Amino acid sequence: MCKWGMNKMELKDVLRVNYSKDKLKAWIELLDSSFFDEVTEEDVGFLIEKAKINFGLVEWQQSDWKQILANHQPLIIAKGIPPENGEDGYLEWKITLNSSISEEEKFSFRDVTKIPSVNKGDKIATIVPATEGKEGTDVFGNPIRQKKGVGVRTKAGKNVEIEEETNVFVATAEGQLSITTKFIHVFPLYELSGDLSLETGNIDFVGSVTIRGNVGTGYSVKAKGDLFISGLVEGAFLQAGGNIVINEGISGMDKAYIKAEGNIETNYINQAKIETGNNLVVKKSILHSDCVAEGDIICQNGSIIGGSNSAGRQIEVKNVGNFAFTKTELALGINKKVSEQVEQLNEQLSALKDNQNKLVLLGNQLQKKKKQSGLNTKERIVLLKQRHSLEKVTKDIEQIQLEMTELQWTIGNFTEMSINVYGKAFGNVELNIGKYSRLLKDEHSRFKSYLKDMEIVMEPL
C-alpha cells in the first residue's frame, strides 16, 4: 500500500505522470518540492503502475532520477515504438523516358521533341508493389496502426499488356509511348512536318500527333494519345487523351482551349483556357488565363498574373500578381471534374449492386432447386453463368469502391495542399483553399501558404 494516502499531501500532488499526444513517450514531472525528499523508488513505481504504463519501460532507476526531478526536468519512464508506414508502390522503368528539350536544341524545330518509342515485345516498366509497413505500440501496450503503402493504380492501355507473373508492362505493338497517371498506352503516330494549315485541315487521330510547326486560330487538333507541337499555338482547340507538349507557347487571344487527360507542358500561356488531368508545367509565365489542373501547377521560374488558376494539390510559382495590383486568383481543392467523376461512379455502383442482388437471388433459387429435385442441363449452364457473372460484378464493385475511396480522400485531404511563392506576391492576390479565402492587401515575399485550423496561414520559405 502506498504510504502517501495516509499523509496530508498525497503523492499525486507531488509528482504527476504525463505522456505525449501520440502516447509514444511517458514521463514524470515534479509538481511540489515540499515533500519531495520523502519520495522513494517504490513511490515512482506505484505511480507508473497506477497510470497503467506497461510497455517500453526504461531503466529510470539507473539514472540520478531524484536530481532530474529536483531540477524540474521530465523523468522519462517509457518509450513506445512508432509505427513504420509502408512505402507506396511505383513503376520501375525499363526504357529511357525523355520528352524534354535541351537548351542547345530548343530553337531547332526538327529536334525539339524527343518521342519515346517502343517495339513489339519491349518491356516498358515493372510494378514494384507497395509495402505493408509495421504496426507500432504505445506506452500503454496498445497497437498503433501503420499507414499502408498505396499500390500502383496505373493500368495497361492500348497495345500494352501486363505479364501477371512478373508484373511487367509489355508493348504488344510498335508505336509511341503515352503515359498518364491512369494508363500506359502505345499509340500509332501521325506526324505533320510544318504548320497546320488549310491544306491539312483539322486533325482528329486515334493515336499520338506531332506537329512540327504552329497551330493557328480556329483550328482543332484531337489526339487519343499524346500531342506534341514544336511551334506556337494561337486561338485553337487542342484535346489529348494523354499529354500535351507545346514547345513555343500559347498565345490564346481568349479563344484557345487546351485540354489533356495527362500533363500539359509549355513555355508560356497568355489568354487561354487550360484543363489538365494531372500537372500543368509552365517554364515562364501564365498571363490572364483560366487554368485548372487536377495535380500541380508548376511555374517556378515565372509569374502568374491575372486570371484564375486552380490545382488539386500544389501551386509553385516565382511571382504572383504585379505592381499594378492586377486581380489574380490561386486556388487549391476539388474541381468540377472530380465532382462529376464521383457522381458517375455512384451511378455505376448503384447499377452494379442492383445486378449483384439479382444474381445472388437467382443463385439461391437454383441452389435450392438443386437440393430438392436436381437441375437439368439448361439450368446447370445458367448456374455456371450466374457464378461467373457474380464474380465479375463483385470485382467491378470492389474496383469502383476503391476509386471512390481515392477520390473522396482527394476531396477531403487538405493536409498536403500548399501554395509556394518563391519570389513575390503583390496586393490583390487572392488565395483560396477549399471554401476558405484570403486576399493579400500588400506585398509578401517567399512564403508557403496552407490550411491550418480552418484558416489560410503563411510561413516563410
Automatic annotation (TrEMBL):
Residues 335-410 form a coiled coil. This is DUF342 domain-containing protein. Keywords: Coiled coil. It comes from the Bacteria. The keyword GTP-binding does not apply. PANTHER family: POLYMERASE-RELATED, RNA-BINDING PROTEIN KHPB N-TERMINAL DOMAIN-CONTAINING PROTEIN. InterPro entries: FapA (IPR005646), FapA_b_solenoid (IPR046865), FapA_N (IPR046866). The lineage of its organism: Bacteria, Bacillati, Bacillota, Bacilli, Bacillales. It comes from Gracilibacillus dipsosauri.
